[in-house]
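Continuing the series of single-chain predictions for the mutant panel. This is the parent chain; the variants come on the following pages.
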Amino acid sequence: MPWRRQPAHATELLAHWHALGQALGRDIPAWRAEGRRLIQGWAHWPRAYHDTTHLWACLRHLQTVQDQQPGALQDPHAAALALWYHDAIYWPWGRHNEERSADWAARFLRSQGLPEPMVLRVHQHILDTRHAPGPLMGDALWVVDIDLAILGQSDAVFRQFERNVRREYFFVRWPRYVAGRSAVLKGFLHRPRIYGTPWFHDRYEAQARINLHHALTALDNGKLYA
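Parent structure:
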């Protein structure tokens, strides 16, 4: 079924998904159809930040890590699959988006006959993107840092991120939004480290803390950091 409107980066994403399928020996019609379903899901209303642009940014961060840190990931294919599925289901008012996305991934990957240890890794990586405080190990550190890379981007990019998050939570009244968003941002700012890997920490930690501080100051003043 064709899209009514082409999602951002759809061509690049499909090419990435097909290449991933070939690397896993699964470049078959069912795999290709799943790629189209995923992209449609990532483009679904009311996404404004958690959309195909975010997915493409995550995959590009992953590629950069692989290019600059060869061998850093134990299972880069599982990491790529986790990024593809980590917000495959996303409703701002939902409480179990990651769990449902992880279950979707596991169902499809099992239907494709992929090894169970890989399926379980992908499933856990997706759950780790809930960003609950606590220690992570191995490739989970990379997946989570990639998902959080937006926090350490330039001031202009971060401001657009904050605008887009507010657009996704359009149904939340402003006072409640300020309280909830402030709690989320403070949760990251108060961590000893936002990024678990040295690679991301060295590149983005300082800017992330500046961005979070500015956003919280704006919210304290009753404004959106936009």
